[in-house]
Each structure stands twice: as structure tokens, then as C-alpha cells.
Amino acid sequence: MAEPVTVYPGDRRFAYLALAPSVALVLMLIAVPTVAIFALAVQDVPLGRYSGDFVGLANFRRLFADADFYAALGNTFIWIGGSVGLEMLFGTGLALLLNQRFPLRWLARTILLAPYLLPTIVAVLVWRYMFDDIVGIVNHIAISAGLVARPIQWLTSPRVALLSVILIGVWKFTPFVVIAILGILQSIPGEQYDAAKLDGAGPVRRFVTITLPHILPVFVLTALLRTIWTAHKFDLIYLLTGGGPINATTTLPVLVYVRGFHDFDAGGASAIALVILLLIALLLVPYLLIHRWSEARQ
Amino acid sequence: MSRAFRLGDVASDGLLLRELSGKALVFLTAFAAASVVGFPFIWMVLCSVKMPAELYNAPPAFLPVDFTLRNYADLFIQTGFPRYFANSLIVAVGSTALSLLFGAVGGYALARFNFFGLAIFAALSLLCYMLPETLVIIPLYMLASYVGLQDTLVSLIAANTAFTLPFALWFMRAYFRSVPASFEESAMLDGCTRFEAFRRVTLPIALPGVASVGVFAFNNAWNEFLFALVLTSSERNKTLPLGLSTWIGQDSIYSWGMLLAGSTLLTLFSMAAYLLAQSGLMPGIGEGGTKG
């Protein structure tokens, strides 16, 4: 408690009543379903039925012998690593840039943050059209500039599709990193830089000794948050490629959907969901530790 | 300043020049980046006013050969765009209203009291905030069909509200904690009930924070795709992301024109909504982090 609160008669009833709808919704639609996937994962249950035969760990044995699963696991790591790496790189660079004073800065800022504010479906439609093999402007520009000889199948070639999806994701989500880093950059007192300048520190020294330590906690937290949310991502990938071609862009969340709603295998899909849960849990531990550390530092 | 005195006039001219060229470099880099990032928007708008057949020309011309609004007309005549839009609006407004209502009273209770179970629920909902939708989509689908809410907008409102509430509760809790409890206690000494004190004293002070939770909730539901894909099936219940996505790749009827027209309209709507939210209520876009 931030400060002592006087408890009046009836406050207990008020508090429980006030929280009742939230508790009901969160328990019914998030917590209980999360527990339910543990039960579903050990059953052979087709979608459309509510329970099936108990099969022990058979769903997991099937999963660990499934080439699709390993492909999805690999894609998930490439998707997360590529997306978060590029988002942090571009996001930090753009934040440092936007932290400088220059004419028309508001305009550059507005344009650079715009992709984040738009519905995912807009990004999907525009980029699918631009990345079209034949009528897309990207291939047209690449060929006229002499960068490639033949049209690239951006979203339909197994070798390129995941990279294209990553690039589109980076376009869409880098602004989140820009906003987070820019916020912390603007909180650095200007006097620190003035004092360092007086002491003869050059721009690189000033960056390493003042800027970097200041933004580090936020940088790490942002990277972890982006990692968790990128691991969750379903809509962007599914709408761009449906997980294809073949399995080239199928990540674990996409595989859950495909197993459940294309193959009607609720048990198998739940087993994959549990792998995702484990992955998220592993990511949450460093997040919470670093969160505690950065709060203690302030 | 002192540096200029020490180094003398000539050197300070050099420094000024270096500073200016540094500024020019920053300016050029920023606008090079902005052109790359902004190009898809320009291309979307330009292509949405080209004749449908022109969109399939290879190589494409940059500017429209003939300006036309036919794609916009097609969007309204051929697709269920108005219905998708209305459905999205119903789902987004419904789940925003519920998230704000439940999140505000619940967040207030979490901010002020420490009765049995409250801290546990706060921790549980923080955990739930980190869980992906795909994790629970199979049980949710089963639940919806079990209670007979499959293919209804109500199921979408419920699912979106549940997935927004953890965020709403935590942020509301933080905003209400920043309002001193003594304010409402003096109101209660004057005869207000706890709820009246909350509604008349604390809520108005915390309103900007409440509004930013509203923006988050609306954006979440407006964007949501997986629940719509799984929980609704008939044409009349489709929301915008689901409805528009069914028209991708329908090349026999030149669907790109309509889809780009739809994208342009959605972009304009989003921009208008953000300007409205920012001008009136919200201190900064993205404050506190929006789930993406």
C-alpha cells in the first residue's frame, strides 16, 4: 500500500463486489482454459467433442516425432530472433535520431511511428500487394535498379517467405521500440551532457558514459517484452502466408491453429500449446528478474 | 560557449560548420528512413484510386493513369464492408466499455484494499497478461460452442474484454494509487458511500489514465483477428480483419482495388480516432506500452 487507507464498514463487501466481474471473466476465459489445455493434452480428443480417451503422453510422443513441429520450432526462433534483433537495432537508431533537434522533426516522427498505429490488416493488405511476384512494386523497383534479375517470390518461395514476414513485422512493430527508447532518452538531464562537454568528452564518449547506462534497463525490458509478444504473434503471419509455403512460415502459434482447426486434433494442438506455455515461462523469468533489478536501480 | 572562447574564432567557425553538417546528416537520415517507412501508405492511397485493371499492370505506373473512385464503390457494393465495419465497431465499443467499467472498479479495489485474495488475483491477472491468445483458443472454442455462443458478437466481446482486463486492472490500480486516499476519506466523512467517493472524487482525477486504458482496449478489440477467425463463421458476423482477409487473392474479380480502398479508409479512420484521443484525453500515444 502506498499509504494507509482507513477501512470503513462495508468496504470488504464493496471490494469483492467490484472485483467479481473481473475475477469471473479472467478465471473463466483465461485461467481455467489454460488449465484445461493440460487436461486436453493427455487425451485423444477431436475438435467438436468436449473430452476423449486418456492417452497419457502419446500426444507428446507424436509431437516429438513430428517434422512439422521441429520446423515450427526452428521458424519460431528465427522469427523471434530476426524480428526482435532488427526492431531493437532500428528502433534504438531511430530513437537516437529523433532525439536530435532538426527541422520538420514532428513530420519524421509522425511518419516513422505511423505503422504501429494502424490495424494489422492494413499492413497485411498493403504489403501483400507490394510483395506480389508479378504486379508488386517491390519487384519492379528491385529489377529496374538492377538488384535482381528475375522477380523474387517474396511470400511464396519457401526460402524467402520467412524473411519477408520478418521484414513486414519489423516495419509494423519497430515504432514500439522507438517510443520506449525515446521516452527514456528524453528523461536524461541535459546538464549531464553539458558537464561532460566541459570536461572535453566527445560525442562517442558522451554516448558510452551517459546515454548507454541510462537507457540500458529500458532497452533490455523492451527487448524482452518484444520477445514475448513476437512469440505470441499469430495474425500477421497467418494473414500474410497462412504459415506457408509448405511450412516455411509456420511458427508454434500457427501450428496450434492448424492442428486444431484444420486437422481437428484438439489433443495434439493442446500439446503444442503447452510447449508455447513453457517457452513463455522461460522468457518470463528473466523479464521479472530484470524488471525487479531496474526498479531497484531507480 | 566557454569552449569557443578558449579555442578562438577560427576554430569556433569550424565547429559551427561541423555542427551544421551533422544536423544536415541527421535530417537526411531521418527523412530517408521516413520515405522508406512511409512509402507503403503513399502507394496504398495512389493505387486505391487507379482503375481496377491498372493494378494488374506489370510494370506498374507510379501515378494513376485514370483517377477513379470505382474501387471505393466496389468495396461497398461487392463486399460486406459496411457490415464488417459495424461489427468491428460493436465489438470494439462493447469490450472497451466493459473493460473500462470492470477495470475501473476492480482496479480501484486493488489500489485501496488488501483483503484476503486481492493480492493473489492481482498476481494472477499479471500472469494472464503475458499469455497468448493461441494458448487458450481451443478451450475457448469448446466453451463458446458449449454455452451456445458460437458465431455471435457477444462471444467476441467477452473474449476481448477478458484479454484486456489484466492490463486494465493493473494500469487503473496504478492511476488510482496516485490519487491520495485522504481525498475520498474526507468525502466519506461528509456522508458519501465508498462507491460515491470513488465515482465523484477519485475517478475524475484519474480520468486521463482511464482514457488511455480505453484507447488500448479499443485498439486491441479493433485489431483482433484470432478470436474472430475461430469464434465467428457466418458472413453477417465478420469483423473487419476477418471480412477483408476473405477477399485476398480473389483475383478473378480484381479484388486488390477494393482491398486497397478498404485499407485507405481504415487508415483514415484510425488516424482520426488517434487524433481525437490525443487531442482530448491522452497524454502520449503508446504510454505504458500497447500489446502488439
Automatic annotation (TrEMBL), chain A:
Keywords: Cell membrane, Membrane, Transmembrane, Transmembrane helix, Transport
Statement: the UniProt record of this protein carries the keyword Transmembrane: yes
Domain of life: Bacteria
GO BP term, pick one: transmembrane transport
GO CC annotation terms, alphabetical: plasma membrane
Cell compartments where the protein resides: Cell membrane
Annotated TM spans: 14-42, 77-98, 110-128, 134-153, 160-184, 204-225, 237-258, 270-290
Residue ranges annotated for the ABC transmembrane type-1 domain, each copy included: 73-285
Membrane topology: Multi-pass membrane protein
Signal peptide limits: none
InterPro entries, A to Z: MetI-like (IPR000515), MetI-like_sf (IPR035906)
CDD domains reported for this sequence: TM_PBP2
Family label: Belongs to the binding-protein-dependent transport system permease family.
Protein name from the UniProt record: ABC transmembrane type-1 domain-containing protein
Organism placement in taxonomy: Bacteria, Pseudomonadati, Pseudomonadota, Alphaproteobacteria, Hyphomicrobiales
UniProtKB/TrEMBL annotation, chain B:
One cellular-component annotation, GO: plasma membrane
Localization per record: Cell membrane
Entry membrane topology: Multi-pass membrane protein
Keywords in alphabetical order: Cell membrane, Membrane, Transmembrane, Transmembrane helix, Transport
Cited InterPro entries: BP-dep_ABC_trans_perm (IPR050901), MetI-like (IPR000515), MetI-like_sf (IPR035906)
Main location: membrane
Domain ABC transmembrane type-1 residue range list: 85-277
Sequence intervals crossing the membrane: 25-46, 89-111, 118-141, 153-176, 197-218, 253-277
Family the entry assigns: Belongs to the binding-protein-dependent transport system permease family.
Protein name: ABC transmembrane type-1 domain-containing protein
Organism: Pleomorphomonas carboxyditropha
